[in-house]
Request: fold
Amino acid sequence: QVQLVESGGGLVQAGGSLRLSCAASGPIFSLDAMGWYRQAPGKQRDLVATIDSGGTTNYADSVKGRFSISGDVAKVTVYLQMSSLKPEDTAVYYCNARRVDLTSSTNDYWGQGTQVTVSS
Reply:
């Protein structure tokens, strides 16, 4: 399995910025996409942003215009630049890597998560 490690989380005031990073600590796989998801206590883990191997990006409506995803899927590196942060952005943020196998089954790999807390 690919092993993913996130960094960059922390405590920030509303309106501030943070930059999250994710990188592989192990062999580089052939991936179809990478992305960021987040999960608040008692809530479902939700999509934040993704980038596929062709560079196409996708964002949740709640973060459009505020967050930007970038990286190199081939090198298993991805970043999330977060600006104009709001208290509702508070969550554990997880890095995701996705690979589709020859049977069309989706394989997802996850990092350990990094806490982002936005205060009022």
The CA atoms of residues 40 and 104 lie 31 Å apart. The chain has no helices and eleven strands. The chain has a mean pLDDT of 94. The radius of gyration is 14 Å.
